[in-house]
Amino acid sequence: TFFFFKQKTAYEMSVYHLDVAEVEDQKARFDSYEEEAKRMLDRRLPVPAYDNLLKASHAFNVLDARGAVGVTERAAFFAKMRTLARGCAQLWLDRREELGFPLGVWQMPSPPSESKAATDESYLAPGSSPRDFLLEIGSEELPPQDAVAAAKQLKTAVTSLLERLRLAHKGIITGGTPRRTYILVKDLATCQEDLAQRIRGPPARVAYGEDGKPTKALEGFCRKNGVSLDQIELGKDSNDKGGADYVFANVKTAGRPAVDVLSETLAEVVEGITFPKTMRWLTDAAYSRPVRWIVALHGEVVVPFVAMGLLSGATTRLLRNAAEPEIQLESADEYLDKMNTAGIVVDMELRRQSIYQDALEAASAVQGTITQRTADALLEEVTNLVECPRVILGKYKSEFLSLPREVLEIVMKKHQRYFAVEDPSTGNLLPYFVTVANGNINVDVVREGNEAVLRARYEDARFFYKSDCSKSLVSFREKLDGTVFQEKLGSMLDKSHRLEKLAGQVVNCLGLSPEVSDLVSQAAPLAHCDLATDLVTEFTALAGTMGCHYAQLEGKPKKVCTAIYEFVLPRGAGDELPATDAGAVLAITDRLDSLVGLFAAGCVPSASADPFGLRRAAYGLVQTLVGKGMKVSLENLVEVVSGAQPLPVSSECRKELLLFIRRRLEQLLVDDGVPVEAVRAALNQRGDNPSLAASSAKELATEMKTDAFAAILSSLARPTRITRGKENEIACVVDPDLFEAKEETALWEAYEAISASLEGEAGIREFVQVCLPIVSVVDTFFEKVFVMAEDEKVRNNRLALLQRVANLPQGIVDLSQLPGF
User: Which of 137, 669, 717, 810 could serve as a FRET partner for 152 with CA atoms 20 to 30 Å apart?
Assistant: First the structure.
């Protein structure tokens, strides 16, 4: 067998890649191959350039296997290889063009020039009934999230298009699989509805000269709308309060055949579907994966158009291993039946339910179950990985159950997309799994193949786990020195030392207890250690989890172990937050260290790229601060962390970072359902304190609905408008001796009372309650007092008083961001 002859070779190469390969030598090889590839590109030799690119890629793979590539450096390596690949491809194309494309040139198809409706007499025959319309976009397998996004976008786009085209219908069905996205419009009219419009032209005084003859303005209006002068009418426009006469044209537009107007517009629908990442071909075609066919049928009539370099037709594709992989559709209304007959479930929700029920039945056959938690984490993805689902129950050796549960589940879920089977009575894992295959298969062969793959992964995991357990957790820390975090910021060991140094200072900024400080000092040196373990190097999603597990095996205090686990939380939007203060401190400190350091190193995200995941880091930072209710100045935290960086952090860089974090905070609150006006009003005054800003924004969203808040908003708006732009003219202080009316004194006393009552962190509800009495005082002031008095001193004093009143919300809420202010 292959194993018998190649076992020694495989073992030796594994030892080389994982343990022996010299990291610095491999880095030098990568640099050397990269430079040689560039030199070959300069010499216009695409094949040797590509050969060196492959060698550079292999050097990267060895570095990755040795654990020498940090998360941030990975993006830099990929960028270099991607640039070379693009250069090789472009040069290859240029060279083929120079040779005159000896293998031929592909021609873009074009739709028929003659109207399709004109060639089908029955289509527009009198009494022609509506018929179903089908649009199917067939492609290479889409990623699960893209399949869902494409179906939603297609429904939105087609619904809008049919409304714009005045095409009546009786409902829309949409869905898809990894290979197809479709929309089926029930009973779509064969012709547009006629359109009657009364179009207003120029005023009558402009349309006709003094002699009563039509002017060029009127003649141009007539030409534009296809009417004659004798069809023009005079009349009033209800929207014109001046009551002037205008010329009007009654324009009737006859409806065109649906097939013709759809032919002209469907290409923009198909090419308008967008994805976070796309593949490109031809010159301007871009889609998640290459598009292979397009079906467009209105009843039995093909709707011809060209998109993505393809001419639409009536040919769709079934499963790749089907006896008849392509079929010709006779009409749109037979599409669903044809798919169902072929075993393809195009309805996403139906496919989802079918997979879940079949998986539960398979698990129950071995007295097990699949929990809702497991299903929620995986079902959506699996649903959109297959189009003809076949659920299979597999088994693995019960001896693997000695591994940590998290290891077993991460391998099944993340690497294999298997559903783990649990004992419903105990909640423990059973040595079974459920997988979902696609199409017509040999169940036994597929089951054995999946079992073999899982067995190999579990064997690797067991080997790595035993190897890790033979050493102490802290002993892995020195290995972090071999993994680059970022070239200007040092290694992961340097980052670990910064975390240890900064965590205590962050505890002080947050005002936490000495107990938390002690826990943080114990957990910080261990937080990154599991990144150098064999198991986490192989299964990176276990970072934090295995650090906690190994610390528990060594008998570390439970709270320290928990902090090590929580240090990586939240892993993304919607993930759990650190439950303990110690875990939160480590999570906050590590993210701040990454953000400050990478911003200082010039690795700021662009509008289209964020290779270092800084948006995710900032989002996780504010999630933790808000979720834990930790009130702290971001500016102070950034300043503290800046002092520990190995390169200078300018004030401009700190300002840019603070604005970046604030935008993530705004996104977090809007995602949480808080109105954007309330979010911005709170952030403009309290954005430096995310927790306080979040509670203020949520409270403001509630108070904005009350009459009391509306009264305060209206009352404070007038002083703000009067004093806006006059800051340089207004006196610095208010002099009560210059008051001439009792209303001035009353407003000053009300202001002083409110100002004394409002504390720096006053809530929005408290602000409303305290400020409500000033509403009537302000109204009376404006009724009785003329602000812009002739006496300059009196005038400036009154403006100064109003400015103080207008500034009452300062530090609490920016009312100018709210509607109606």
Answer: 669
Handedness of CA 474, 475, 476, 480 (dihedral sign): positive
pLDDT at 109: 84
- The secondary element (H helix, E strand) that includes residue 726 is none
* pLDDT above 90: residue 795: no
Distance between CA 63 and CA 53 in Å, rounded?
15
N-to-C CA span, the chain: 80
Q: What is the pLDDT of residue 229?
A: 84
Whether the Cβ atoms of residue 560 and residue 527 lie closer than 8 Å to each other: no
Contact 80, 57 (CB under 8 A): no
Q: At what angle do helices 634-642 and 492-510 cross, to 10 degrees?
A: 140
Please answer whether residues 524 and 503 qualify as being in contact, where contact means their C-beta atoms are separated by less than 8 angstroms: yes
Separation of alpha carbons 669 and 231, rounded Å: 57
How far apart are the C-alpha atoms of 264 and 270, rounded to whole Å? 12
Structure tokens at 213: 């003859």
- pLDDT, mean of residues 770-799: 89
Strands across the sheet with 429-438, in order?
389-395, 429-438, 419-422
pLDDT at 496 over 70: yes
CA distance 131 to 121: 15
3-state secondary structure string across 183-214: EEEEEECCECCCEEEEEEEEEHHHHECCCCCE
pLDDT digits (tens, 9 = 90+) for 435-490: 999 998 999 999 999 999 999 999 999 999 999 999 999 999 999 998 889 889 99
Radius of gyration, alpha carbons of the chain: 35
Average pLDDT, the chain: 91
Q: In the prediction, which pLDDT does 252 show?
A: 83
Burial class (CB in 10 A: 0-12, 13-18, 19+), 660: middle
Supply 200's token pair. Answer: 């207003």
Q: How far apart are CA 182 and CA 163, in angstroms?
A: 19
For residue 794, CA distances in Å to 43, 725, 732, 744 come to 81, 19, 13, 11
pTM: 0.78
